[in-house]
Design goal:
Chain lengths: 186, 280
């Protein structure tokens, strides 16, 4: 959303190397490449977040002993990068036609020093904020699939941000439906 | 016979216990394993480090050593020092880790600890500065797991906190004329710890049950994990839920409440241990 853009490429289900093969489900692999530089520890932890989120929705049991690889390339970063990656990943999974138990979307929520909730903050808003939350919300029951926080806040504030994020998720899912409709109606 | 069942169908074995609201090792769903902590040079191993602590959560053993070195601060933050955490999961702690470059779990754990330090402001980086723009302390925090039996994040965070409380920094003055630093090893000051963040991890089973302080076996069977870091005033420093089964807001709230209780227990434990080593 905005100026942040991430390109997602999905490959699979494909052959998997012997050591990584899981006998009852598909092996999911996520590679996140930053715009400049080599992937470092931050990318690794983000990859783990994305991978476990995708593992929760992809019905891996339908494709045992295969590998599904998701490659994300950051094209530009103007804030809310992690939720942009989540959205790109979900759309990639949709486009590839992989069986999913539900859709998910990423929402970033910043709490600025006054206590106002800002959805989808820019880089500057993120830096000035007291706390920044990124949630992955699923489409079936609006439950929290993934959560990470930066900065500290009180428990009520977090619940408020979560509620705001769940409302915003509806807008994003509508966007998914519109994009898919546009793609397949041609 | 039960051992055979446990090996062949671990999930069913666990489900039978969970239905009765308890776990194979006799704990309740909300009960932590016995926590012990050793701080300092006299009862802990590392004599070369400036601060050290050994934490045991049941069988999970984590040791943290903090070394302080001098460096020039970064250009854009001239009055701030650095804290550099590094979590290692060597192959000796569990068969699941191979030797070689740090695996994904170790890197994610290092990132988690760095986030906790950053979010909770456990140490103000300005306190680490000696001469603005010229000299500052760098604290290298090495957290090494000696025995992996689940819940590595909680143990690492606890070990880090305990070790930092133990750190004694020698006083350093910068000689105005020569511009060189003079380190006075005789005079030592403890670090100013502003906040005390404590991590509490939960494992999610079958989308509904939450159990606290998972062992390695429980972690493997779980469908998701949540780690919540709270600090002294009941504020949230971090909610770390890397994917896994979805949770409702209410369940998350339960976790947070439990985490706040745990914080008080841990804080009492740390204070008790520090008091016992004070007469030195």
């Amino acid at each position: 959303p905005g100026d942040t853009s991430v390109l997602a490429g999905l490959y699979g289900p494909a052959e998997v190397k012997g050591s990584k093969e899981l006998p009852d489900r598909a092996t999911l692999e996520v590679l996140l490449r930053p715009k400049v530089g080599l992937p470092g520890v931050t990318e690794r932890s983000r990859e783990q977040l994305l991978r476990q989120t995708c593992e929760a929705v992809v019905l891996g049991v339908l494709h045992p002993r295969t590998a599904i690889t998701l490659v994300l390339q950051v094209l530009s970063d103007a804030g809310s990068l992690l939720s942009c990656c989540l959205n790109a990943a979900c759309m990639g999974l949709l486009d590839a036609g992989l069986p999913l138990s539900s859709l998910f979307c990423g929402v970033t929520c910043a709490l600025d020093p006054n206590g106002t909730i800002v959805l989808d903050p820019t880089t500057r808003q993120e830096q000035e904020a007291r706390a920044v939350f990124t949630f992955a919300i699923d489409s079936a029951e609006k439950k929290v699939l993934m959560a990470t926080t930066k900065g500290s806040c009180s428990v009520e504030e977090m619940q408020q941000c979560l509620a705001a994020a769940q409302r915003a998720a509806d807008t994003i899912f509508q966007f998914y439906r519109d994009s898919v409709r546009r793609r397949y109606s041609k | 016979l039960s051992i055979c069942f446990r090996t062949v169908e671990p999930l069913e074995y666990y489900r039978r216990f969970l239905k009765e609201n308890c776990r194979p090792d006799g704990r309740e769903l909300g009960e932590f394993r016995a926590t012990t902590v050793n701080i300092g040079k006299s009862c802990c191993s590392i004599t070369t480090a400036d601060g050290s602590a050994l934490v045991k959560l049941g069988n999970t053993t984590v040791i943290c050593g903090v070394k302080a070195e001098l460096a020039a601060p970064a250009v854009d933050s001239a009055n701030k020092g650095y804290i550099v955490p590094n979590v290692e999961l060597p192959s000796l702690c569990s068969t699941r880790f191979r030797s070689g470059p740090p695996g994904e779990e170790a890197q994610a754990a290092s990132q988690f600890i760095a986030d906790v330090i950053e979010n909770s402001q456990i140490i103000a980086k300005e306190d680490l500065c000696i001469a603005s723009g010229k000299l500052a302390w760098v604290l290298y925090c090495d957290i090494i797991c000696l025995d992996y039996d689940g819940n590595i994040l909680d143990a690492s965070a606890f070990a880090l906190l305990a070790a930092l409380k133990n750190v004694q920094l020698p006083s350093v003055t910068v000689n105005e004329e020569t511009g060189l630093s003079e380190v006075n090893l005789k005079q030592k000051n403890p670090l100013i710890i502003r906040k005390h963040p404590v991590a509490t991890s939960f494992a999610i089973f079958d989308d509904t049950l939450l159990i606290v302080d998972p062992t390695a076996e429980e972690e493997d069977l779980a469908t998701g994990t949540v780690t919540i870091v709270t600090d002294d005033e009941g504020r949230l420093c971090s909610v770390h839920k890397p994917g896994g089964s979805p949770l409702t807001g209410a369940k998350l709230q339960d976790c947070i409440t439990r985490a706040i209780t745990r914080h008080k227990e841990v804080k009492k434990l740390i204070d008790k241990v520090i008091k016992s080593i004070k007469p030195k």
